[in-house]
Amino acid sequence: NAGVMQNPRHLVRRRGQEARLRCSPMKGHSHVYWYRQLPEEGLKFMVYLQKENIIDESGMPKERFSAEFPKEGPSILRIQQVVRGDSAAYFCASSRTPEQFFGPGTRLTVL
Amino acid sequence: KQEVTQIPAALSVPEGENLVLNCSFTDSAIYNLQWFRQDPGKGLTSLLLIQSSQREQTSGRLNASLDKSSGRSTLYIAASQPGDSATYLCAVRLQGSSNTGKLIFGQGTTLQVKP
User: Fold this and answer.
1) Longest dimension (CA), chain B
2) Exposed end of chain B (fewer CB within 10 Å): N or C?
3) Under an 8 A CB cutoff, do A55 and B101 touch?
4) Are A110 and B63 in contact (CB under 8 A)?
5) pLDDT digit string (tens) for B101-114?
6) What mean pLDDT is reported for chain B?
7) Measured in whole angstroms, how far is the alpha carbon of residue A73 from the centre of its chain?
8) Residue A16: is its pLDDT beyond 90?
């Protein structure tokens, strides 16, 4: 059973471009969580999704950020018009039980 | 608002020592607590999960305890090895109406075990 997969592992964008981060949960997991780890800071919750539904987006910035988890395919975290402050590691986790399993992360660098 | 604190921020020990990492949380109304390991530039590996009704969990050389009333958890590592060097994170999940599944993380304790 493959673990949580994220791609790309590293992403470089210039200011103003769009970033799309993908997360494929573990097989049989219908719950997906996105977290962000800013440099020298701890992990912060962003959004929790179940298939086709956003359950909790209390940690998402109000503008430029969106997330989806369609019926088919991976979960997508989309950042529009990226700024340097968006540079961070973005982690996805999935679960079926209370235990969450994390992917390797996508490291976003905004030039 | 739930806050999670880990002390110390960094720890360096010689190989073979037993050690304790501390995690405290401000709101005792938690659903569970999870300990993770993060290697530099890598993702998180789940080590132990303790449900709110449990007092401790063990896996190999690791033992995690939970005292909800005092808002504390400890991760005990026996006979430390250089391969244990990593950052250790604790995270709590809230209960009740706030239980949407999200985890609230501490800042982590970076452990170095010297050969």
Assistant:
1) 47
2) N
3) yes
4) no
5) 889 999 999 999 99
6) 93
7) 14
8) yes
